[in-house]
Design brief:
This protein is an alpha/beta fold and 189 residues long. The chain is 33% helix and 24% strand. The strands form 2 sheets. A 6-stranded mixed sheet has the order 4-5-3-6-7-8, sandwiched between helices. It has a two-stranded antiparallel sheet with strand order 1-2. Bound molecules: guanosine-5'-triphosphate. It is found in: Cell membrane.
Length: 189
């Protein structure tokens, strides 16, 4: 397989893995990016690994998009996906407070047990429902505080329904993997 060479990064493909509570929209986000279609019904299980190329900075990078199942009982399956991941997309839905809280309580710990070095982007999914995030008590200050406390490499919002922000999520995932950070600090995007 052709190798990418970009500044500080050389690899055969970039593995991007979505994690977060069941129902936050991980599968929808991945399917929307990979196929440009909005998936129809609720998909409780996982989307097959999807191989694609992502353009960043004038280079084409091979990437593998990996879905995980957020429900309890799928721990073993999730742990298989974690070790080779280059960038985790830690997803919460803007209309579900528990999914937001669980990024700190559950998901960052879950991935760091297995993978201490991968990049982490916090993704607020279902951004078309953003008005509801205030009703459920998730403020921008809360989100930025959490992003900092879990030492994430960035924060983005997207909607699989409107497609807003979807392409940006995957470009940023490549960027944080291939670009060497100038300083060791959290970047809020
Ligand atoms: N309004 C809105 N609803 C969405 C969006 N993305 C997903 N949904 C809804 O959320 C439901 C769950 O989405 P999934 O993508 O299956 O969630 P998941 O995180 O993969 O769930 P698990 O597979 O259980 O871990 C879908 O059936 C959609 O109805 C979005 O961007 N906006």
């Amino acid at each position: 397989m052709a190798k990418h060479k970009h500044k500080h990064y050389t690899s055969s493909s970039i593995r991007i893995t979505a994690v977060g509570d069941g129902g936050v929209g991980k599968t929808f986000m991945l399917v929307r990016y990979a196929t440009k279609e909005i998936p129809l019904g609720y998909e409780p299980t996982v989307f097959d690994n999807h191989h694609c190329t992502i353009n960043y900075g004038g280079h084409e990078y091979d990437a593998v998009l990996v879905d995980t199942a957020g429900q309890e009982g799928f721990e073993k399956l999730r742990n298989l996906s974690y070790p080779n991941t280059d960038c985790f997309l830690l997803c919460f839905a803007v209309d579900t407070r528990d999914s937001f809280l669980n990024l700190s309580y559950v998901w960052i710990k879950d991935i760091r047990k297995v993978n201490k070095t991968a990049k982490v982007l916090v993704i607020a999914t279902k951004s078309d429902l953003k008005e509801e995030s205030l009703e459920v008590g998730i403020t921008e200050q809360d989100v930025l505080g959490m992003v900092k406390s879990i030492k994430a490499d960035g924060y983005l919002e997207c909607s699989a329904v409107t497609k807003e922000g979807i392409d940006h999520v995957f470009r940023e995932a490549v960027r944080v993997v291939v670009e060497k950070p100038k300083r060791r600090r959290c970047t809020v995007l």
